[in-house]
Specification:
Elements (H helix, E strand, L loop, with lengths): L1 H28 L6 H29 L5 H27 L23 H19 L1 H4 L5 H24 L10 H10 L2 H4 L8 H19 L15 H20 L7 H19 L2
Helix pairs in contact: 2-3, 2-4, 2-10, 3-4, 3-6, 4-9, 6-9, 10-11
């Protein structure tokens, strides 16, 4: 009897040990999965950023131009958003967020290759795509009433490819916290990161990649194109300040998703970003 008990106990011990080892291996090899609440927050934030472009930015710029140019500005913002979204899927995500070099990514994720619906990358790329699309749209205001539709489209595609994607990669790309398992892997993460990230650049919600990048493009573009025909002679007052106001309000609301969504989770950092966004905008208007 005692022999049978010992045999059964031994087999049970081996079985439990084998199960534990397999469980540990599964934990080590399983891909990281985002918390459902964080995923929902990221999707909602992405929708808010999309709202900033369509219709927020379109109405904001459209209300500031003369009535004869209203449709042109609306179509520029709308068309660029759609075009950049397609380009982001084709090569934008791959060039910005894969480890090619310190200055630009690789071809590994063309057409979102390997990005499955259940992966964290699928959630992230939605917000990153909305960021890229609104960045290009921001430049439209610098060319308003002074550039042909075809010229704006061509410039935007070139600028997105040779300016936005390299800057985004240099500032934002790194392998992520899930790649750090020990001191050696931490060093590798830094070595594989973008050039400016390795230099210590901190850009929480696009101050460098989006705002400075787009501002320089708009400034140079406005300077190269020159003044509008009839500037200083013809009446060029905004044709609809109510539309301008509605667009500004939509931009303000959308900015909560823009800034707080950059936390990539619904946590204390996101809540702090929401509070700071509210206070900063209200203070700017109060002292404007």
């Amino acid at each position: 009897m005692s022999s049978r008990v010992l045999i059964v106990s031994g087999l049970l011990f081996v079985f439990l040990s084998f199960t534990e080892v397999n469980a540990q291996d599964t934990v080590k090899t399983a891909a990281p999965v985002a918390h459902p609440t964080d995923t929902m927050w990221m999707v909602f934030s992405s929708l808010l950023v999309i709202m900033m472009s369509l219709p927020g930015l379109a109405l904001f710029y459209g209300g500031m131009v003369r009535s004869k140019n209203m449709i042109s500005v609306l179509m520029q913002v709308f068309s660029l958003f759609c075009l950049i979204t397609v380009l982001w899927v084709i090569y934008g995500y791959s060039f910005a967020f894969t480890g090619g070099s310190a200055f630009i990514g690789s071809w590994d994720k063309l057409f979102l290759s390997g990005v499955t619906p259940a992966s964290m990358a699928a959630t992230f790329t939605k917000g990153a795509c909305a960021f890229a699309a609104i960045t290009v749209g921001l430049i439209v205001g610098a060319f308003a009433e002074r550039a042909k539709f075809s010229a704006v489209i061509l410039f935007s595609v070139l600028w997105f490819t040779v300016s936005y994607l390299p800057v985004a990669h240099m500032v934002w790309y790194w392998d992520g916290p899930d790649a750090i398992t020990d001191a050696a892997s931490a060093a590798t993460v830094s070595e594989n990161a973008g050039f400016l990230w390795r230099m210590g650049a901190l850009d929480f919600a696009g101050g460098t990649v989006i705002h400075i990048n787009a501002a320089i493009a708009g400034l140079v573009g406005a300077y190269m194109i020159g003044k509008r025909v009839g500037y200083g002679v013809d009446q060029m007052a905004p044709h609809s300040l109510p539309l301008n106001m509605i667009g500004a309000a939509l931009l303000w609301v959308g900015w909560f998703g823009f800034n707080a969504g950059s936390a990539l989770a619904l946590d204390s950092v996101a809540l702090q970003a929401i509070l700071n966004t509210l206070i900063a905008a209200a203070t700017a208007v109060s002292h404007g």
